[in-house]
Design a protein that fits this description.
It is built from three helices and two strands. It is mainly alpha-helical. A two-stranded antiparallel ribbon has the order 1-2.
């Protein structure tokens, strides 16, 4: 049995800290605007809806820790996701 070395995590609900405008800061120190929070919420809703309707499991992994083969597998996974989502 092969081990999967990809460190992946399933998409989970948006953390409450990200739901409140003005509490989180961007890298340049500016506050995240309410419109950005709304966009995050709608994207999350669409991803959850897509995942439940199609049964497609959304996995997010750290691409910086992948070797060439694992990177190609990850790239193909996201191509498949994009074709199904759009």
């Amino acid at each position: 049995m092969k081990k999967n070395h990809r460190a992946s995590s399933v998409i989970h609900p948006i953390h409450p800290r990200f739901r409140k405008p003005g509490k989180r800061l961007k890298k340049n120190g500016e506050k995240i605007r309410p419109q950005s929070i709304d966009n995050y919420r709608y994207v999350h809703q669409n991803l959850v809806k897509f995942s439940t309707e199609t049964g497609f499991v959304l996995l997010v992994s750290d691409a910086s820790k992948l070797n060439a083969r694992e990177y190609q597998v990850e790239k193909n996974y996201w191509k498949k996701f994009y074709r199904n989502f759009t």
